[in-house]
Amino acid sequence: MACEYSKINCTCTYPCSRRGKCCECVAYHRRNGEVPGCFFSKDGERTYDRSIDNLYSDYRKKGY
């Protein structure tokens, strides 16, 4: 699997050392039982709540 590195395409607004480094970001959040910000809607991402429950709630709000 190729690992993406692009701060230009990164939709996460949280300023961290993994921003734009997709493989590092996904691995970090998986270790913590979380979901990366790029999986959320813009409003959901801005909460900085990366829990699976919040992702589910975010998707339900958007009607997915």
Please tell me about this protein's structure.
With 64 residues, the chain is mainly α. The protein has a domain at 35-64. Helix content is 39%, strand content 0%. The chain is built from three helices and no strands. It has helices at 22-31, 42-45, 52-62.
Topology:
Layout: H1 22-31, H2 42-45, H3 52-62
Instruction: Work out the radius of gyration.
Output: 12 Å
- Count of β-strands: 0
| SSE pattern | HHH
Q: Quick check: average pLDDT?
A: 89
Share of residues in helices: 25-40%
Distance N terminus to C terminus? 28 Å
Q: Which structural class best describes the helix and strand composition? A: mainly alpha
The number of helical segments is: 3
Residue runs with pLDDT of under 50 for 5 or more positions: none
Strand percent estimate: under 5%
Main beta-sheet annotation: none
Gross morphology: globular
Summary, kept brief:
With 64 residues, this protein is mainly α. The protein has a domain of 30 residues.
Features:
single chain; 64 residues; mainly alpha; 3 helices
